[in-house]
Design a protein that fits this description.
The protein has 16 helices and 18 strands. With 478 residues, it is an alpha/beta fold. It is globular. The two termini are 43 Å apart. The relative contact order is 0.14.
Length: 478
């Protein structure tokens, strides 16, 4: 999803011991559990977004040179919506959920209580550094946790705002921001947390999971991968080109759910290439480098990695680069081999390989032998083709004839499967992710006579009664 690494060689230090101790004391006190405390933190987050809207826009422009409007629709508005939803629904989310009872527990109260995990760590990436930091934070605070936030050091301007301004809006007894790079992240992960939420690359995700395993800490890993995009022969090529180009090149391709490569027939490729050329020109003009609608690659290291990928296959569209400007033109590659680097790693940039297949079944077989992606896209006017792809493939998200507009829905979970991650969030799913679902049975202290039914020695009539009470035919009541 994003690319950075954890350091492994560092002096023994405990730079956050006091901070973590303070947060642990708050967890033990139970101070964060009441609904009103949680709402107060959410209202503080809402004020942070509202009062620092321009400051966040400026920070994102400094890090990515992204248009303010695109920052609003991909980050700030979505975060605001998430806070608003949590404030409206928190009381309902927090309610105990009654569960069905069998005859043996007929006089007991049975329910699931959502409790905070305690002290949680959120490690965020740089590509949408506000969205992918604050969206999980909303759920963690709503669930009543104390939070350590680790923004990405690569998005330096946003990190500074989150570290210096955001803490003014939240209670310092339950919230802290840790700055730094890979070495600081590695040190931080040596501490015990009750939950870790990580968004980033598979490589670093494995390191996070390994560190969490030492403390048996549960994790959510929001990772990336190579998201396939199948284009059927019955499609209108210009419609497909418009949608694929927009979602591939939005944020300069630095989006974990962007289509990573196209699979289509040779005939569709011949029709799709001029349509993509037309879409790119329409969106970004004859000289895309001068377009205000294209941001920039986040760092020199990422620029160099992407420029090396341009050597794969053959450049059919674009391919121009400017190292000083960290600019890479919207590029389409053809004649790419599956074994080349551009098909072995997540691209995370404005490069779109097109591979040809002989049939739908060949495309499905191609997807099935690769790691399960975070998102899978299908373009076809034939519902049967879409359903076949849906039923014979696996991915975190599936979308037909569209891109990643599903990210605007708090009602739909975001999460990967297999190599693309584990766990899910957005809306109530984030609240549930950061809540321990505690099964509770409250039985009466009296009526011991009834319990004699299942105490030994087991007599014939009591055996039959217990068997009947446990059977599927017995009534279940809420």
């Amino acid at each position: 999803m994003t690319h950075h690494a954890l350091g492994c060689c560092y002096p023994r230090m405990e730079p956050w011991a006091d901070t973590l101790r303070r947060l642990r004391e708050t967890v033990s006190s139970g101070r964060t559990r009441p609904a009103e405390f949680r709402k107060a933190q959410l209202r503080g987050l809402e004020r942070f977004l509202r009062e620092n809207h321009e400051l966040l826009q400026e920070a994102l422009t400094g890090d990515l040179r992204r248009l303010d409007f695109e920052t609003d629709i991909s980050e700030l508005i979505l975060c605001q919506n998430e806070v608003d939803l949590a404030l409206r629904q928190l009381d309902a989310w927090m309610k105990d959920e009654p569960v069905s009872r069998n005859v043996l527990l007929l006089l007991s109260s049975t329910f699931v209580r959502k409790e905070p995990y305690g002290l949680v760590l959120i490690m965020a990436p740089w590509n949408y550094p506000v969205n992918l930091t604050l969206m999980p934070l909303v759920g963690a605070l709503a669930a009543g946790n104390c939070v350590v936030l680790k923004p990405s050091e690569i998005s330096t301007s946003v990190q500074k705002v989150l570290a210096t301004v955001l803490p003014r809006y939240l209670d310092p007894s339950c919230f802290a921001v840790v700055q730094g790079g890979p070495e600081e992240s590695a040190r931080l992960l040596e501490h015990k947390f009750d939950y870790i939420f990580f968004t980033g690359s598979q490589q670093v995700g494995r390191l996070v999971m390994s560190a969490a395993a030492k403390h048996l800490t549960p994790v959510t890993l929001e990772l990336g991968g190579k998201n396939p995009c199948y284009v059927d022969d019955d499609c209108d090529p210009q419609t497909v080109a418009n949608r694929v180009a927009f979602f591939r090149f939005f944020n300069m391709g630095q989006t974990c759910v962007a289509p990573d490569y196209v699979l289509c027939s040779p005939e569709m490729r011949a029709r799709l290439l001029p349509a993509l050329q037309c879409s790119i020109k329409r969106f970004y003009g004859a000289d895309p480098q001068g377009s205000p609608y294209l941001c920039r690659i986040v760092s020199d290291r990422h620029f160099q990695r992407l420029r090396r990928l341009l050597g794969c296959g053959r450049v059919a569209i674009g391919g121009q680069t400017d190292e000083q400007d960290r600019y890479i033109a919207p590029t389409v590659l053809v004649d790419v081999q599956e074994t080349e680097p551009v098909m072995q790693e997540e691209i995370f940039g404005p490069i779109l390989p097109i591979l040809t297949v002989g049939s739908l079944s060949e495309a499905i077989e191609f997807m099935q032998r690769r790691e399960k992606p975070l998102a899978l896209y299908a373009f076809s006017s034939n519902r049967q083709v879409v359903n076949q792809l849906l039923s014979q493939t696996s991915s975190g998200i599936f979308a037909s004839n569209d891109g990643f507009t599903f990210l605007t829905l708090s009602s739909m979970p975001l999460g990967g499967i297999g190599n693309s991650g584990m766990g899910k969030y957005h809306g109530k799913f984030t609240f549930d992710t950061f809540s321990h679902h505690r099964s509770c049975v409250l039985s009466p202290a009296h009526l011991e006579l009834l319990n004699y039914l299942h105490y030994p020695p087991y007599r014939g009539w009591s055996r039959r009664l217990i068997t009947w009470g446990l059977g599927s035919h017995s009534c279940t009541l809420l």
